[in-house]
Amino acid sequence: MDSPVRIAATDAHDQPVRTPDLDELYRGFETELLVPLWTEIGDLMPARPVAKALPHLWRWRTLLPMAEQAGELVPVGRGGERRAIALANPGLGGRPFVTPTLWAAIQYLNPREDAPVHRHTQNAFRFVVEGEGVWTVVDGDPVAMRRGDFLPQAGWHWHGHHNRSDGPMAWIDGLDIPFQHYADATFFEFGPDEVDTRQDPALSRSERLWAHPGLRPLTHVRPTPATPLLAYRWEHTDRALAEQLALEAEGYPATVEPGHAAVRYTNPTTGGDVLPTIRAEFHRLAAGTSTRQRREVGSCVFQVFDGTGEVTVGAERWTAERGDLFAVPSWQPFTLATETGLDLFRFGDAPIFERLHLDRSSDEGAGT
Length: 368
Ligand code: GTQ
Ligand code: FE2
Fold this sequence. Notes:
The protein is of the alpha+beta class. It has seven helices and 22 strands. The site of fe (ii) ion has 4 residues, from strand 4. It comes from Kibdelosporangium phytohabitans.
């Protein structure tokens, strides 16, 4: 009978000589639910991260029609909670996890439809690549969603979504569902079935209080772990990126590398990331720009907002277009390039790694 203990081919030379006594010992390990380090070390303690998640790209032109189909066939209601279709990384065994820590889904609401109120410990955000008409109502504060808006929503806040318009709307959700799932940290509660739709203001209360650059309301001087600002509007993001490129053209240092403008969405009470577990950024590559190759511990997802570009992640290479989403697993080198200009939304799990002092990154040539 073969030993139940798996021996990796690569470290077989380090394994002890098999004898009947050793086989007996290994069978004893199995019975007693024990595993020796010496058979597992190659997998558990690799020299550098070996991501189980794979580089993968999902096409918007495939996702959107399927979300529309779901809109015809699948009702939204209590229990299922959301008409959200998650990206399942091909390296993660079919689970609805885009990376080991992150969830990414396309969510779809028909005209006048509600997604019921609930709350959960998972941190979340919405990003809108096209369309408008839905309000997400966070702790009773209705927040309009439009193309280019980034809408963070920290864990344990009540939220429901309501389509006020006569057209359907789709957007993407990002959450730390896999991280909290592996960590057994998840709590969930149902709220009212109906979303409060008595009001649908253009500006949320959170924006009226917080969306004034550099101005802190004196009623709120304590730092909070997640951002109190519930909408980061496209007009601000767009202008910030345009000004970085304009300043670069005028000879001032403003871009992360030539032709590459970038901003991070931040918590105005700390200057740090918007959510405790999720970092979100927006990147703009001017026409004819390519980025240096880079790799980082931790994983991220990009969504093309506008334009077309060549994306390389590990051994994969794609031409990515508006709405396409791709996963960058931990420590996989990636580069972005565009002939005609490229706008990208990005989110990742960097805050987790930074807080645990596990963050590392390298530009090509800087070693590992
Ligand atoms: O919109 O509240 O994609 O709770 C997954 C879980 C969206 C949401 C998702 C959620 C939501
Ligand atoms: Fe939710």
